Amino acid sequence: MVTLTGQSLCMEQVKRILWENAAVVACGEAMARVADSRRAVEKIVSSQEIVYGITTGFGKFSDVLIAPDDVETLQLNLIRSHACGIGEPFPEEVSRLMLIFRANALLKGLSGVRPVVVERLIDLVNHRIHPVVPQQGSLGASGDLAPLSHLALVLLGEGEAFYQGEKMSGNDALMKAGLEPLVLTAKEGLALINGTQAMTAQGVLNYLHAEQLGFAADGIAALTMEGLKGITDAFEEEIHIARGYPEQTAVAKRIRDYLQNSQLTTRQGELRVQDAYSLRCIPQVHGASWQALGYVKEKLEIEMNAATDNPLIFDGGKKVISGGNFHGQPIAFAMDFLKIAVAEWANISERRIERLVNPQLNDLPPFLSSNPGLESGAMIMQYAAASLVSENKTLAHPASVDSIPSSANQEDHVSMGTIGSRHCAMIIANTTRVLATEWICAMQAADYRGVELLSPRTKKVYELGRTACASIFSDRIFHYDMERTASLIRSLGWNDTFIGLEKNTLMEA
Question: At which residues is 2,3-didehydroalanine (Ser) found (predicted)?
Answer without folding.
Answer: 142
